[in-house]
Write a structure and sequence with these properties.
Number of strands: 12
Number of domains: 1
Shape: globular
Low-confidence stretches: 149-158
Number of helices: 3
Order of helices and strands: EEEHEEEEEEEEHEH
Helix content: 10-25%
Largest sheet: 12 strands, antiparallel, barrel
Amino acid sequence: MLELQNYLVREQIAVLRMTDVYDILDPESGKQVGIAEETRGTFAMLLSMFMNKNLLTRKIEVREHPEGSLVFTMRKPTSFFQPKVEVFDAQGERVGYFVSKLFSFGGGFNVYDKHDRPFAEIQGKWTGWDFTFRTPDGHEMGWVTKKWAGMLKQLFTSADNYVVSISDDLADQPIAKMLLLAAALAIDIVYYDGEE
């Protein structure tokens, strides 16, 4: 899965689902290359019926396929102020984390590597669902943009589709791809998932 430079992330639609599931596809072939699935305990699922789920602890596992091997895990602890999302590889080692920006018109994160060094900045546009990944010195690493899902789906569901594109400069850097793909999922989890 991490050999790709572009991903289509499609949130699955379900009427009574208590957790979020995202299909990860190769946008060129349409083939499913992975899945991102939220895992929650029973108590957390019950709490999510009465509370904004962005205030609760969240854990997302990203796998090669629904039954495939684990690629990475994202964890967001309970937070009321400046959400933080940590990313762990398949062996459970932290590879980096994101901290939500305090004041940003378009939303965004500061991304750090496992040594707490700045890795990237994710900048949103206040005019829409477009985000750019940049290195601390301003070099573009990639972008995320919302993909139109059709009038009925947009009006009557909270499911999202978006495209993640990673710069060719990062073609042989799986940790960078892991962090940027996780960042794209974190944008949806932290900024938009509570708007249902």
